[in-house]
Description:
- By secondary structure, this protein is mostly helical.
- 86% of the residues lie in helices and 0% in strands.
- It folds into two domains: 17-72; 77-180.
Amino acid sequence: MSSMLSHNKDQPRIRKSLSDSSPTATTATTKSLRHERLSRLSSSGSSDVSNDTSTNHADSYVLRWENRLSARKKAEETANNDYKKMYEKALATNQRLKSKLETSNQELAMIQDQLQRTQKGRPGDCSSNMLETEKKESWSLKKRISDMEEQLKVKAELKMENQRLKDENGALIRVITKLSK
């Protein structure tokens, strides 16, 4: 036992901060440190069983730590890819909704223009048949206008929700960036 202690005091200990090295360098360093410990144990003999078990506990701790680190990195990579996909999907949806909104606005303008022309261009001495058709047309146009206004309301709500999702996505990306540092 005393020979083991004197042997350990003579050997310099190498400690390296985890933030100073890359994961591959950390793995190589921990493997070389484990190899050094095992070679020291084998050269000193196997007379001390408690020291051997403490080395095994340390090795198992290092292995668990390495597994956690690699799992965390994989999870961060997956999360980054998922947020990127969600952001791209939100952008595509936003563009699609913008084009639909523009189309609906153009249709609405055409229908309102058409409605104004029919209301202004009414002759005073029309037959009852023409009045009924004009009433039907104006009623159908008004109905279409009200439908389009409802669609515009829905699109505005979707636009607001889309913006909220973009903001949330940006916040999540910032959090992930801070966690990855």
